[in-house]
Specification:
This protein has seven helices and ten strands. By secondary structure, it is an alpha/beta fold. It has a six-stranded parallel β-sheet with strand order 3-2-1-6-7-8, sandwiched between helices. The protein has a two-stranded antiparallel sheet with strand order 4-5. A two-stranded antiparallel sheet has the order 9-10. It is globular. The termini are far apart.
Length: about 210
Protein backbone atom coordinates (compact mmCIF):
# COMPACT_ATOMS: atom_id res chain seq x y z
CA UNK A 1 0.00 0.00 0.00
CA UNK A 2 1.40 3.33 -1.06
CA UNK A 3 1.37 6.23 1.36
CA UNK A 4 1.05 9.62 -0.29
CA UNK A 5 2.55 12.55 1.54
CA UNK A 6 0.53 15.70 1.58
CA UNK A 7 2.23 18.58 -0.22
CA UNK A 8 3.03 21.27 2.31
CA UNK A 9 3.37 24.78 0.96
CA UNK A 10 6.75 26.21 1.81
CA UNK A 11 7.15 29.62 3.43
CA UNK A 12 8.41 32.14 0.87
CA UNK A 13 11.28 34.23 2.18
CA UNK A 14 12.89 37.42 0.88
CA UNK A 15 16.15 38.45 2.55
CA UNK A 16 16.86 42.16 3.09
CA UNK A 17 20.51 42.97 3.87
CA UNK A 18 21.60 46.24 5.47
CA UNK A 19 25.04 46.40 3.85
CA UNK A 20 26.82 48.87 6.14
CA UNK A 21 25.33 47.38 9.32
CA UNK A 22 26.48 43.91 8.27
CA UNK A 23 29.93 45.10 7.18
CA UNK A 24 30.76 47.00 10.36
CA UNK A 25 29.33 44.22 12.50
CA UNK A 26 31.51 41.59 10.82
CA UNK A 27 34.69 43.66 10.75
CA UNK A 28 34.33 44.69 14.40
CA UNK A 29 34.77 41.06 15.42
CA UNK A 30 36.07 38.81 12.64
CA UNK A 31 38.72 38.80 9.92
CA UNK A 32 38.51 37.26 6.47
CA UNK A 33 34.73 37.55 6.19
CA UNK A 34 34.35 40.48 3.77
CA UNK A 35 34.14 38.40 0.56
CA UNK A 36 30.75 37.14 1.71
CA UNK A 37 28.43 35.28 -0.65
CA UNK A 38 25.08 36.65 0.51
CA UNK A 39 22.99 34.31 -1.63
CA UNK A 40 24.77 31.27 -0.21
CA UNK A 41 24.56 32.73 3.30
CA UNK A 42 20.84 33.36 2.97
CA UNK A 43 20.15 29.80 1.79
CA UNK A 44 22.15 28.42 4.71
CA UNK A 45 20.02 30.37 7.19
CA UNK A 46 16.68 29.01 5.94
CA UNK A 47 14.80 26.09 7.46
CA UNK A 48 13.63 23.07 5.48
CA UNK A 49 10.07 24.44 5.29
CA UNK A 50 11.23 27.68 3.69
CA UNK A 51 12.16 28.65 0.14
CA UNK A 52 14.37 31.57 -0.88
CA UNK A 53 12.59 33.98 -3.24
CA UNK A 54 15.16 36.76 -3.44
CA UNK A 55 18.17 38.34 -1.73
CA UNK A 56 18.30 42.14 -1.70
CA UNK A 57 21.38 44.15 -0.70
CA UNK A 58 21.14 47.80 0.36
CA UNK A 59 24.24 49.98 0.42
CA UNK A 60 25.80 53.21 -0.83
CA UNK A 61 28.87 53.45 -3.05
CA UNK A 62 31.69 55.16 -1.21
CA UNK A 63 33.70 57.89 -2.93
CA UNK A 64 36.43 59.15 -0.60
CA UNK A 65 39.08 56.42 -0.98
CA UNK A 66 40.15 55.01 -4.36
CA UNK A 67 41.37 51.66 -3.02
CA UNK A 68 38.18 51.10 -1.02
CA UNK A 69 36.07 52.15 -3.99
CA UNK A 70 37.76 49.52 -6.16
CA UNK A 71 37.19 46.78 -3.56
CA UNK A 72 33.55 47.75 -3.09
CA UNK A 73 32.87 47.76 -6.84
CA UNK A 74 34.36 44.25 -7.13
CA UNK A 75 32.20 43.02 -4.27
CA UNK A 76 28.99 44.52 -5.65
CA UNK A 77 29.78 42.97 -9.05
CA UNK A 78 30.25 39.59 -7.34
CA UNK A 79 26.88 39.94 -5.61
CA UNK A 80 25.12 40.87 -8.85
CA UNK A 81 26.70 37.89 -10.58
CA UNK A 82 25.33 35.57 -7.87
CA UNK A 83 21.77 36.84 -8.37
CA UNK A 84 21.52 39.40 -5.56
CA UNK A 85 19.44 42.53 -6.20
CA UNK A 86 21.32 45.76 -5.38
CA UNK A 87 19.58 48.92 -4.14
CA UNK A 88 21.79 52.00 -3.72
CA UNK A 89 21.41 54.92 -1.37
CA UNK A 90 23.75 57.90 -1.10
CA UNK A 91 27.18 58.46 0.43
CA UNK A 92 27.23 62.10 1.42
CA UNK A 93 29.90 64.49 2.66
CA UNK A 94 28.94 66.13 5.94
CA UNK A 95 30.47 69.06 7.79
CA UNK A 96 30.95 68.64 11.53
CA UNK A 97 31.83 71.07 14.33
CA UNK A 98 33.35 70.68 17.77
CA UNK A 99 31.74 73.10 20.22
CA UNK A 100 34.58 72.75 22.70
CA UNK A 101 37.62 73.30 20.47
CA UNK A 102 35.74 75.16 17.69
CA UNK A 103 37.36 72.99 15.03
CA UNK A 104 35.57 71.95 11.82
CA UNK A 105 36.06 68.85 9.69
CA UNK A 106 34.32 66.78 7.06
CA UNK A 107 33.14 63.19 7.25
CA UNK A 108 31.00 60.94 5.07
CA UNK A 109 27.71 59.27 5.94
CA UNK A 110 25.62 56.61 4.27
CA UNK A 111 22.05 57.78 3.64
CA UNK A 112 18.73 56.19 2.62
CA UNK A 113 19.49 52.51 3.32
CA UNK A 114 16.93 52.30 6.14
CA UNK A 115 14.38 54.19 4.04
CA UNK A 116 14.89 51.93 1.03
CA UNK A 117 14.58 48.78 3.15
CA UNK A 118 11.47 50.15 4.87
CA UNK A 119 9.74 50.95 1.59
CA UNK A 120 10.51 47.53 0.11
CA UNK A 121 9.44 45.60 3.22
CA UNK A 122 6.01 47.19 3.09
CA UNK A 123 5.69 47.30 -0.72
CA UNK A 124 6.59 43.63 -1.11
CA UNK A 125 4.14 42.67 1.64
CA UNK A 126 1.40 44.54 -0.23
CA UNK A 127 2.36 42.71 -3.43
CA UNK A 128 2.33 39.37 -1.55
CA UNK A 129 5.89 38.58 -2.63
CA UNK A 130 6.84 36.91 0.65
CA UNK A 131 5.36 35.08 3.61
CA UNK A 132 8.34 35.94 5.78
CA UNK A 133 11.02 38.60 5.48
CA UNK A 134 14.49 37.96 6.87
CA UNK A 135 16.13 41.22 7.85
CA UNK A 136 19.92 41.16 8.25
CA UNK A 137 20.47 44.25 10.37
CA UNK A 138 20.45 45.53 13.93
CA UNK A 139 19.36 49.06 13.07
CA UNK A 140 16.58 50.31 15.38
CA UNK A 141 15.42 52.70 12.63
CA UNK A 142 13.82 49.62 11.05
CA UNK A 143 11.48 49.04 14.00
CA UNK A 144 8.60 51.13 12.48
CA UNK A 145 8.44 49.21 9.16
CA UNK A 146 8.63 45.88 11.01
CA UNK A 147 5.69 46.97 13.14
CA UNK A 148 3.84 48.17 10.04
CA UNK A 149 4.16 44.78 8.34
CA UNK A 150 2.98 42.90 11.44
CA UNK A 151 0.02 45.20 12.09
CA UNK A 152 -1.21 45.40 8.49
CA UNK A 153 -0.40 41.87 7.30
CA UNK A 154 -1.16 39.47 10.15
CA UNK A 155 -0.20 36.39 8.13
CA UNK A 156 3.26 37.73 7.35
CA UNK A 157 6.24 38.04 9.64
CA UNK A 158 9.62 39.71 9.81
CA UNK A 159 12.41 37.85 11.56
CA UNK A 160 15.91 39.17 12.12
CA UNK A 161 19.41 37.79 11.62
CA UNK A 162 21.67 40.10 13.60
CA UNK A 163 25.19 40.70 12.26
CA UNK A 164 27.97 40.16 14.83
CA UNK A 165 27.95 42.85 17.54
CA UNK A 166 24.74 44.36 16.17
CA UNK A 167 22.01 42.73 18.30
CA UNK A 168 19.47 45.34 19.37
CA UNK A 169 16.82 45.07 22.11
CA UNK A 170 14.32 47.35 20.31
CA UNK A 171 14.53 45.18 17.20
CA UNK A 172 14.27 41.99 19.27
CA UNK A 173 11.00 43.16 20.82
CA UNK A 174 9.22 43.65 17.49
CA UNK A 175 10.75 40.81 15.45
CA UNK A 176 8.94 37.48 15.15
CA UNK A 177 12.10 35.51 15.70
CA UNK A 178 15.79 36.47 15.81
CA UNK A 179 19.30 35.05 16.01
CA UNK A 180 22.88 36.23 15.54
CA UNK A 181 24.99 35.16 12.56
CA UNK A 182 28.11 33.40 13.84
CA UNK A 183 31.69 33.31 12.59
CA UNK A 184 31.51 29.76 11.17
CA UNK A 185 28.45 30.64 9.09
CA UNK A 186 30.25 33.67 7.66
CA UNK A 187 33.44 31.73 6.92
CA UNK A 188 31.52 28.82 5.33
CA UNK A 189 29.74 31.15 2.89
CA UNK A 190 32.57 33.07 1.26
CA UNK A 191 32.90 33.50 -2.51
CA UNK A 192 35.65 31.63 -4.31
CA UNK A 193 38.90 33.58 -4.58
CA UNK A 194 38.20 34.08 -8.29
CA UNK A 195 34.80 34.49 -9.92
CA UNK A 196 34.15 34.19 -13.64
CA UNK A 197 31.48 36.64 -14.79
CA UNK A 198 29.02 36.04 -17.61
CA UNK A 199 30.69 38.77 -19.69
CA UNK A 200 33.99 36.89 -19.64
CA UNK A 201 35.69 39.03 -17.01
CA UNK A 202 37.17 37.60 -13.83
CA UNK A 203 36.83 39.02 -10.35
CA UNK A 204 39.53 38.36 -7.79
CA UNK A 205 39.17 38.63 -4.04
CA UNK A 206 40.89 41.87 -2.96
CA UNK A 207 44.35 41.24 -1.45
CA UNK A 208 43.49 43.37 1.58
CA UNK A 209 40.62 40.96 2.33
CA UNK A 210 42.79 37.82 2.46
Amino acid sequence: MKVFKKNVKKERVIVYVDGFNLYFGMTSKYKNTKWLDLYSLSKSLLKSNQTLEEVRYYTAMISNNDAKVKRQVSYVDALKNSGVTITLGHYKKKKKHCRSCKSTWFTHEEKMTDVNISVDLIKHAMEDRYDAAMLISGDSDLVPPINAVHSSFQKKRVFVAFPPNRANDDVRRVAKGYFTIGRKTLIDNQFSSTINLANGKTLTKPKDWL
